[in-house]
């Protein structure tokens, strides 16, 4: 599953490299401005900064090429998966995507091992107990 997701990212990067308008930022600017998917007010504001859009286009390409290698094993895996989760959550507000981000975030479960699941469960239990205490007070 990890290999499949990594190859999907790599294939997306390869396609974007050969798509007129992606590296120049034109394609992303269009998606920031359109409400085809859903409203995206933050994206409309960011569309006013072309240098930022071009930089993010290049960062997206690099991300999609190196994702599989950086997320495969080791301590960088947690950082990469966290950054990927934040990126996909940001596409809700920037591009108005509502279906794709949860699918990609859930696909990151393929990278979790037993230790990660225990750590995540402990963190969620701790957060939920903190919320219950705040509700009681």
Question: How would you sum up the major sheet?
Answer: none
Beta-strand residue fraction: under 5%
User: Would you count the extended β strands for me?
Assistant: 0
Tell me the Rg in angstroms: 18 Å
Overall pLDDT confidence: 88
Order of helices and strands: HHHHHHH
* Low-pLDDT segments: none
Spatial shape: globular
Estimated structural class: mainly alpha
For the termini, the CA-CA separation is 45 Å
Approximately how much helix is present in the residues? over 70%
Number of helices: 7
List strands and helices in order, with pairings:
Blueprint lengths: L1 H16 L8 H8 L7 H6 L3 H22 L4 H20 L4 H8 L6 H23 L1
Helix pairs in contact: 1-4, 5-6
Name its key features:
137 residues; mainly alpha; 7 helices
How would you portray this structure in words?
This protein has 137 residues and is mainly α. The chain is 75% helix and 0% strand. The chain is globular.
Short description:
With 137 residues, the protein is an all-alpha fold. 75% of the residues lie in helices and 0% in strands. Helix 1 packs antiparallel against helix 4 (50-71) and helix 5 runs antiparallel to helix 6.
């Amino acid at each position: 599953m990890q290999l499949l997701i990594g190859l999907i990212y790599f294939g997306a990067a390869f396609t974007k490299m050969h798509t007129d308008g992606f590296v120049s930022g034109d394609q992303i600017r269009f998606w920031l401005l359109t409400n085809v998917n859903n409203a995206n007010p933050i994206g409309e504001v960011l569309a006013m900064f072309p240098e930022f859009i071009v930089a993010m286009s290049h960062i997206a390409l690099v991300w999609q090429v190196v994702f599989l290698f950086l997320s495969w094993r080791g301590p960088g895996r947690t950082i990469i998966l966290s950054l990927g989760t934040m990126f996909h959550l940001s596409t809700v507000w920037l591009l108005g995507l509502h279906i794709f981000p949860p699918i990609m975030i859930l696909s990151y479960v393929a990278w979790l091992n037993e230790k990660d699941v225990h750590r995540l469960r402990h963190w969620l239990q701790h957060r939920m107990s903190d919320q219950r205490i705040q509700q009681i007070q």
